[in-house]
Every structure is written in C-alpha cells, then in structure tokens.
Amino acid sequence: MSKTLETQFVVEIPKGSRNKYEVDALTGKIELDRVLYGANFYPGEYGFIENTLDLDGDPLDVISLITEPTFPGCRVNVRILGTINMIDAGEVDTKLFGVPVDDPRFNEYKQLNDVPKHLRDEIENFFLQYKALQKKSVVINGWSGTDQAIKELQECKERFVEYKDVLLSKGSDAVKKIWKDKGII
After folding, report:
1. Could you count the other beta carbons within 10 Å of the beta carbon of residue 103?
2. What pTM does this model have?
3. CATH fourth-level superfamily of 5-182
4. I want to staple 109 with a disulfide (CB 3.0 to 4.6 A). Which of 26, 42, 114, 144 is the partner?
C-alpha cells in the first residue's frame, strides 16, 4: 500500500465557481484572473501549497473533493491521494488530488482507487474542457498515486527554496526564463 500524505493547501477557487482567482506571489493579494469562458465550473476546491514551485512557474496546484465550498484564502487540511498529470497550454502542470482530512464523508478515501471512477472522470473532463473556448490545449497524461504525489511535492518544495529569491523579487516569468536558458523547460 502507498504511503499517506497529509498537507495543507490554500483555496483560490471554491467548488462550483466559474471565477478563476489567483493569489499574487509578489503581493499576497487575491485577484480575479478571469472568468471561465464556458459553462464549466470547478468540480472541487482548487488552490495551491505554499512554498512550492512547479514547472509552470506557479505554486503546486491542488484540487480537492469537498462537501461544501469554502472561500478564497481558506486553508484546508487535505489527504493527497495522487496526481493528475497534465500539459496545459504546452507547459507541465501537475495537480495534486485529494480529499479534506476534516470531513468525515471522505474518511474511507485513502488512495486514488477509493474515489469513484466517475468522479475522477468528471474532474478530468473539466480540465480537458475548461480552456477550450480560449483555444488553449490541455492534455491529461493520466493519474498517479500517492508515491508520485510525494515525489512531486518534494521536488516543488526544493525548487521553491532554490528559486525563492528570484521568484519573490522578479516573479515567475524571470524564473521560467532561467529554466529556459538552462534547458529545464
């Protein structure tokens, strides 16, 4: 059986919202990035893990099932069950997937296979469609379990430590330029 991973994430977008909020890394303020172009809405709480840096230049994303939506800026303890492996507009954009630790309705969800396949299919379908009207391509390269999620989280934490000064002083575009120059992305 896979290891267990519990962590905390910051909600940017509540379940059911069509508003795409983001926390600005330089100011810490929550901003409306855009309203989704289609009739889609976020199928779970969506946010990020602080002090991480994924290869898209943003903190590591998390989508979590939940019973009732919270609000932008809310911190949620989550049990990570795996990853959704994505390419979003040509960039690697892995998302951790989990369930809230503090909601008894999800106590039996310990690994990815405990989540009904149809729920996973709905989430996958959301990500395949949510940028279609913007003419942006999203590719899903499957799901991975907790072991991959642990590895992804550790890599993103290490990347944040390595590039924190550049990220916080010049932003993610400066970090991505360094990575392009080094052939990382």
Report:
1. 18
2. 0.94
3. Inorganic pyrophosphatase (3.90.80.10)
4. 114
